[in-house]
Specification:
Elements (H helix, E strand, L loop, with lengths): L5 H12 L6 H4 L8 H16 L8 H17 L6 H7 L19 H12 L4 H18 L11 H15 L3 H18 E2 L4 E2 L10 H17 L7 H17 L7 E2 L9 E2 H17 L4 H19 L26 H17 L6
Antiparallel strand pairs: 1-2, 3-4
Helix pairs in contact: 3-4, 3-14, 4-6, 4-14, 6-8, 7-9, 8-9, 8-10, 10-11, 10-12, 11-12, 12-13, 12-14, 13-14
Length: 357
């Protein structure tokens, strides 16, 4: 995981001291010098904060944005001071869906809360509801219920919090439950022949965003799980297999089609961003061959930062459909699409000369 440098820590300290509402002078601190990646990230985050819709709920869309928004701070040292107030306004609670006590999308906010707690504001109440929800789910898994992650996006919505709470609390039951939930999803949705993930058990399509969710989830788990954990090799194997297949399906323009095996789709930025995040991390971590994968990442980021993102920070070509492949226009955007773009930038910055704090 990336930690901020000295200048970054100064900015973060000011933000924490002011309860996440530091003066505008701090918010306008310049990104790392000569770093176009940092510039693109800051502009995208600030544009969404100023112009985005439905910013209040602790839903999976806003959770994805805020994970990316904190990635901006950790990468550039620049904060728009929005995530801590968002968490406070939601009392650090997870949403609930009637009749679905362990819906994965309701657990997505846990990752944003974990980032707040880990890097900026280590107050135990931030994680109280997340810990309670996961404890109940672990008990349910131990009772034989392992089908909660029945859609490929569920991997990113829930799996990173299981991994991080499991490691943070040295909780083997939490990590064991995560493995059982993952194995059920892997068996149901992962095609060992192609290395791709189906959207759900009833869908024949291979969705770019869905495969991006899976790759991002595995990226986040591999970042925090000790390499000597007995589950680590299987997560890495699936990560590398998915990454390899995705690398050969990239469009000539750097994007991935919303439907990976349909050559007639237009550009789609949310799936492209999530895939770029995973591939760039793999290169940074040394688990993917940079000679093959870095050119893939470079093409993807060039397309994301010059076509998907406009000069004022608007991130477009985000498909409106959220449960499978769908077309996207230049004017389509969403909180999750912006958050995915910011996550991609975090890892691309680590590959870019002049971008390290």
């Amino acid at each position: 995981m990336r930690f901020p440098g000295i200048r970054g820590f100064a900015v973060l300290a000011a933000a924490v001291t002011a309860g996440g509402l530091a003066p505008a002078a701090v918010a306008s601190a310049a990104p790392a010098a000569q770093c176009s990646v940092a510039d693109a990230m800051v502009k995208a985050g600030d544009y969404w904060v100023a112009h985005g819709t439905n910013l209040a709920p602790a839903d999976w869309q806003n959770a994805t944005f805020h994970v990316g928004n904190l990635a901006v701070v950790r990468t550039t040292g620049v904060s728009n001071h929005q995530t801590l107030p968002w968490g406070e306004a939601n009392n650090y609670l997870l949403p609930t869906t009637p009749g679905q006590p362990f819906a994965a999308e309701d657990e997505a906010a846990g990752e944003a809360y974990l980032d707040l707690y880990t890097y900026f504001h280590p107050d135990p109440p931030i994680l109280a509801d997340l810990r309670s929800r996961l404890a109940d789910e672990v008990a349910s898994v131990q009772a034989g219920h392992t089908d909660y992650w029945d859609h490929v996006s569920a991997l990113n919505m829930a799996m990173p919090s299981f991994a991080r709470i499991g490691v943070l609390d040295s909780s083997e039951p939490t990590l064991a439950a995560m493995q059982k939930l993952f194995q059920h999803t892997e068996k149901s949705l992962f095609d060992e022949f192609s290395g791709l993930w189906r959207t759900d058990a009833h869908s024949p399509s291979y969705w770019a965003q869905g495969n991006g969710w899976a790759l991002a989830a595995l990226t986040k788990v591999l970042q925090v799980l000790p390499a000597n954990d007995p589950r680590w090799p299987e997560y890495l194997r699936v990560f590398k297999k998915t990454a390899t297949t995705l690398s050969v399906l990239q469009r000539p323009d750097g994007f991935w089609n919303a439907n990976l095996l349909n050559p007639f789709g237009g550009p789609e930025s949310s799936g492209t961003s999530l895939i770029t995040y995973g591939l760039a991390w793999g290169v940074n971590a040394g688990v993917l061959d940079s000679r093959w994968f870095k050119p893939v990442v470079d093409r993807a980021w060039k397309s994301l930062s010059t076509k998907a993102e406009t000069t004022d920070g608007f991130v477009g070509y985000v498909q409106p459909k959220t449960d499978g492949p769908g077309s996207a226009k230049a004017t389509d955007t969403s909180a999750a699409g912006v958050g995915a773009f910011l996550l991609a930038g975090q890892q691309v910055a680590d590959l870019t000369p002049g971008c390290a704090l």
